[in-house]
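In response to reviewer comment 3 from the previous cycle, which asked for concrete evidence that the modeling workflow produces usable outputs, we include below a single protein chain processed end to end. The sequence was submitted unchanged, and the resulting structure tokens are shown without manual editing.
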Amino acid sequence: QGVLVPGLGTFAVVREQINGTEEVSVVRRPVFQLDMDMSCLQELVFPTVMIPGDIEIMPLDYWWLSQTNSLPPDMVRGCVEETILLYSFQLRDRQCPAFTFENIGILSCQDNVLCMQFHCSCIAGLESQDTWVALLLT
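The workflow returned the following structure tokens.
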């Protein structure tokens, strides 16, 4: 399942088949597919990530987020939208701040490359069998 953060992109977990010398294994790893206004991304390079069509994409659940911080869902939605808008303005102005997603990773821009770096703990939480393979692939 994936989660769409409107104006920013989609987070998902993909299964990837790895052909080893003796066996074939399947690992789960996180991916982020950027979906921002292209005017914000002029002269920036970002990896092209395609989320397979068989993965169900759900919208960000503002009600669930509101339960975690005791704010009304409309206020949470407004905060998310304003934060993404601010981030896009900063990218357009070449300020290149890091955008941190707690327990997930950091969306950062260095040397005109915009990239999502997942925390090792996030990857390990998704893949307990072949954690090292998933870490290397991510």
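The mean pLDDT is 84. We consider this sufficient to address the reviewer's concern, and the full set will be provided in the supplementary archive.
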